[in-house]
Amino acid sequence: MKIYKGTVKSKKGVLPDYVLSVLPDGADYSEEEPDFSDGCQAVEYVSPYGGNQYAGAVFLPEAEQQILFCSVDDQVEDKFYYMGSIISPSWDITQEFSPTKVGDPAPNGPHDSEDYEYNNQSMSYGIKTPLQQKLLFQEYHDPKKDSKRIKLESQRGHGLYLDDSSETNKINLKSAWDGASLQLRDENADKDPSQGPESVNLYGKGNVTFRSWGGHMKHHVRDGGNISMINNSTGGNAVSGGPEEKMASFGNVHLHTDRGEIRISSGGNGVLIDCFGSDPDQNIPYASFQVRSQNKIQLYASNGIDLKSGGDINIRSEGNVNIQGQEVQLNPTYDVNDQIGIRKTNDEILHEKNDGVPQHFFTEDPTFSNNYTEGRNNDPKLY
Questions:
Q1: pTM of the predicted model, to two decimals?
Q2: Strand (E) positions, 113-158?
Q3: Which of residues 88, 122, 149 is at a domain's end?
Q4: Are strands 117-118 and 121-122 parallel, antiparallel or unpaired?
Q5: Is the peptide bond before 380 cis (omega within 30 degrees of 0)?
Q6: pLDDT at residue 325 greater than cutoff 90
Q7: Domain contains 163
């Protein structure tokens, strides 16, 4: 076998696919000859893996790349075969600072001698195409703190990171410039208290949509913590226009069904709906709780109904007002307030225990203080 050195002039020669046109060192070359016949040699591509007609690993060297190629002794035809590309260390990307070993640095592939260096040897291995498509393997061989990951990244920065490092065990699927991402964390994930181990984090700077076209959708906590739906929008990204357009475009939470029913049920502390705060844009001091129906509004309770207001109670009907009971008492001699209790949320009970200060929804109205009890909701007035 004889080994030669030359420069690739074209990845597409005059012969079938995977034949390189290579100019051997010392030969003459002219771009005006379309078949590269003067001095160029047809070199067949050799792959580390071939899968018959429709499969294989193909990494053709680029034009102007120096390669080694060879001829085989005792062959019937004079053929040349590609052996490998000559890589100069000067082609590695030079960096002022090496990337962190625990974050998500952008792939610098195909290979960088400054990346993940251990014992004075580079521990990064990769492939990069001319249009900056990248596949990078990083293995930082430190027995005290291992750092290893696989990164696949497109030209625009869309990426899939598989991280098996000791401090950042996770899968990260991201869009360009990290505008949207999906992170799947393992048991030994990075120390982020907002996420925690074995967690899923879906993030988007823009819209996030969950859609089931023909099936069910379920948010289910089997044996964990709470489910929260929070809208903290301040209007910074609201639509332009007047106050009406702005208020309709941010800060709202909608629950709607076209055909079925909306059920809210609780097997624990109950269903509590609080309205508080103000509207600074409209200069409205307080929010209100409003129930509207184009049919009936029905209230049923097996153990009594309590109503209390710090202001007037107004009842108006265009029909009859019917009140019936064993005895109807107006302004009874005893204080009805002694029979009315206000249930606290579990968060209010916890804050009261930790801070030693009563947590009441009606903090500014002393007329409701007698309706609360300290500690848990065990007051007989609540039952």
A1: 0.65
A2: 117-118, 121-122, 124-128, 134-140, 147-153
A3: 88
A4: antiparallel
A5: no
A6: yes
A7: yes
376 domain-assigned: yes
Judge if 275 and 382 occupy the same domain.
yes
What SS3 class is residue 306?
coil
pLDDT number for residue 89:
45
Q: Determine, yes or no, domain membership for 230.
A: no
pLDDT in tens, 128-163: 777 778 888 877 766 666 778 888 999 888 999 998
Give the helix ranges, DSSP H, for 171-280. Answer: 243-249
Residue 164 maps to a domain: yes
- Look up residue 61 and give its amino acid: P
Tell me: do 74 and 40 sit in the same domain: yes
Three-state DSSP class for residue 156: coil
Q: How far apart are CA 343 and CA 381, in angstroms?
A: 10
Residues 275 and 374 placed together within one structural domain of the fold: yes
Q: What is the dihedral of CA 235, 237, 239, 244, to 10 degrees?
A: 0
| pLDDT digits 0-9 by tens, 80-132 | 999 999 986 443 333 333 333 344 444 444 554 455 555 555 667 778 777 77
Q: How far apart are CA 12 and CA 67, in angstroms?
A: 15
If one counts the domains in the chain, the total is 3
Nearest to 189 by CA among 180, 176, 201: 201
Domain that holds residue 279: 270-305+331-383
**Which pLDDT tens digit goes with each residue over 9-54?**
887 654 456 688 899 988 776 555 444 445 788 899 888 877 777 6
**Sheet bearing 169-174, strands edge to edge:** 124-128, 134-140, 147-153, 159-164, 169-174, 180-185, 200-204
